[in-house]
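Deviations from the work plan: none for this task. Representative record:
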Amino acid sequence: MASTSGEGLSSSQSEASEAERWASLIGGSAMVLMGLRQRSLRGVLMALAGGGLIYQGATKQSTIQQAQEAIGMNQAIKVEKTVTINKSADELYRFWHNFENLPRFMKHLKNVKVYDDKKSHWIANAPLGQSVEWDAYILEDRENEFISWASAEGADVDNSGFVRFTKAPGNRGTEVKVVMEYNPPGGALGAAIAKLFGEEPEQQIGDELRRFKMLMEAGEIATTQGQPKGNG
Amino acid sequence: MKAVCWHGANDVRVETVPDPKILNPRDAILKITSATICGSDLHIYDGYIPTMQPGDIIGHEFMGEIVDVGSEVKQLQKGDRVVVSSIIGCGQCHFCQHQMWSLCDNSNPNAWMQDKLYGFGTSGIFGYSHAFGGYAGAFAEYVRVPFADFGAVKVPEGIPDEKLLPISDAFPTGYMGADMCDIQPGDIVAVWGCGPVGLFAMRSAYMLGAERVIGIDRVPERLQMARDFAKAETINYEEIDAGETLKEMTGGRGPDACIDAVGMEAHGTGLGGLYDEAKQAVRLETDRPHVLRQMMVACRKGGTLSIMGVYGGFVDKIPMGAAFNKGLTFKMGQMFGQKYMPRLLGYVLEGEIDPSQVFTHRFPLEEAKQGFEIFKHKKDNCIKVLLKP
C-alpha cells in the first residue's frame, strides 16, 4: 500500500521551481507529520524528495487509505520522537549519514552496509533469534538538515523514515527528530516482525535516540551491564 | 569482594560478589576506604524506594583510592585519593555544563523508567534503585565510578577520611539547601531535621550570611548537636508547636527561608501524623509531607522553601493556598555535587569546618546491618555511621 501511494505522488514532481521547492521543504516536515497520522509516510517522503506539492498527492490517497483503515489492512507502526543534543547539526548529521554507525545505538539493528551514497543494506534483529533484511535508498539528503530513506521493493519489512536536524534556541544544540513507519507483512511472520520495536515502539525509538545523544555528547553509552550484584 | 546487598525492607546482607570491572572508557575503579550511611539510604532500607531489586549493592556516600582507570579517563590515575559525588554526571550535556549535575541527561541508562512518573529522566546515583540507573553502590570493597574525571575529586593525603567523606554527599546537600535560600543580610533560616544534612545546612546558612539559624527536630541528641556543631537555636517539635514558636522567635514574621532536611519519611504529630502514616501504609500516598506542610505555613510571606529531603512519588493535603497567597518560592532537587565539592573541600582544608564531628559510630562493613539499625532508630545518640571495608 505504501508503494502505490509513492507512485501516485511521483507524477506531480516535475515542474517545481526552486522557490516552491523550498516552500515545500520548509512546510514539508509539518506535512510529513500530518501525512504520517493518516497516510503513508513513504508517499509523503517521496513527494518531498521530488519537490512537488505534497498535499495534493497526499489527499488523493486519503480515500483509499481510509478504506484500508476501515477494513483493518493498515498495520503500519508509526513512531515520532525528538531529542535535543548538545552538539552542532553538522556533527550529528555526519555521524547519522553514515548508516553503518546506526547499530551502535539502535539495538534492533544488527548491521548496516552502505553500498553507495544512495543505497544500503540493513539487517535487523527479529524475535526468536531471527533476522530480517532489506535494501534501503536515500530519498532526500540535505546536508546538515534532513535525511529520508525508504526500503526497496520486496523488503521483508516495508519501512521508511526521516531524521531532521534543527538548531535549538539559546545554544542548546540541535533538535533531532526521527519519524519512522514500518509496514510489516501479514501472517505470523508479520506479527513477529511487528514486534521489531517491542511492545512500545515509541519507547524503543526514544531509548535509541537517548543512546544516540549519550554517544554524541558523552562519547559513551551509560550502562550497568556486567556489574556485580548479590545472589538474590 | 564483600558488598552490602539489599534484599527487601529491613533486609541487607553482606555477600561475596564479583569485583567491578571497567565497562566504559570513562570509568574508574575505586578501592573504598570509607563509606557512610545516608538518611536517604534509610528510605531504601525501609522499602520505600521503588525499582530496587534483590541483590542490589547499596551505598552512595564514599571515598577511596583509584586502582584502575578506563582509556578515556584524563584527570585521574592509579593511586589518587578521591572523594566521589553520590550523583553521577557526564559533564557534557546541557545540564552538567550549567552545573545542574543531578539533572544529567546521559548518566542514567534507565531514564525511561522515570519518563512516565517524572516526565523526564534524571541522573544516575550510586546504589539508589534502578530508576536512578541501577548502578552498584559503595558499601563494598570496590566500586565502579562512571565519568570519573567529573565525579571524583582528588584530596590530599594526611587528612583523616572522616573529615573528607561528607563532601561526597551530606555536606554538598546541606550546602545546596542553604545556597538555594538566596540568603540576604539579616535573614533567619529554619532547618527541619538535625541529622547530618540538616547540620551541614545550618553551618552552610551561616557561611552564606544568615543572621540566625533555627534547627527543628525531636531527638534530644540531634538538637544538642545542632546547638554544638552548628550554633543553632533549636525547637523540639514534640514539646512545643513549631509553627507558633517560629513566629515568636522571628518577631512575628516567620523565617525568611525554610530548609527541608527530612523528606518522605517525616514524623508528624497529632491527627495529621496518623493520617499520613495510615495513607502511606496502604500506599495511598508514597511520601509523608509533614515537613513540607509545616514549612509552607511557617515561612514568612515571600520567603523561600528549599527542599533537600528526598521525595519519591505523591503527597497529599498540601496547603497550596498558603504557598500561593504568601508568594513563596520553592527550590528543590538532588544535590549538584560536582558544582559544590571543590569549594567545600577548600573550606575543610582551610579549617573553616570539620565535618568529622558528625560521625558518632564506626562499624566494619560486615556489620552494616547493625549500623543501619542504630542509625534508623537513632539509638545510642547516633548521628552518622562510618563504614570501613
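The first strand of chain A starts at residue 77 and ends at 85.
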